[in-house]
From TrEMBL:
It comes from the Eukaryota. GO terms for cellular component: plasma membrane. This is C-type lectin domain-containing protein. Residues 10-91 form the C-type lectin domain. The lineage of its organism: Eukaryota, Metazoa, Chordata, Craniata, Vertebrata.
Length: 105
């Protein structure tokens, strides 16, 4: 299962917009899903898979020294051990070209 999601990468988005995006994603999720956010240790900032730092303050549950990967459920955002296996949500940029290709099939 892969859901499409525009990751929270843009620094100047305000917290209300980010909260709305998170609620939208949570409304689509029926399983635990990794969101591509991790860190190398408790003193290292959270980083997205593509290499940018997370600029939004998530209310993470379970954030301790060993929980260095983040997953999302319909009701919460949780830091957990990176060795756990979950579904994931990935980013896809949507364009009119993508839509046109789909309609041609």
């Amino acid at each position: 299962m892969v859901l499409l999601w525009r990751e929270m990468l843009i620094e100047d988005k305000d917290e209300q917009v980010m909260s709305s995006e998170m609620k939208f994603i949570q409304s689509l999720v029926s399983y635990f899903c990794w969101i591509g956010l991790s860190r190398k240790g408790i003193v290292i900032p959270w980083m997205w898979e593509e290499g940018s730092w997370m600029h939004y303050n998530l209310a993470l549950q379970g954030s301790n020294i060993n929980n260095n990967c983040v997953y999302i459920t319909a009701t919460k955002v949780v830091a957990i051990l990176c060795t756990k296996q979950f579904f994931f949500i990935c980013e896809k940029n949507y364009t009119n070209f993508d839509l046109k290709l789909s309609e041609d099939k």
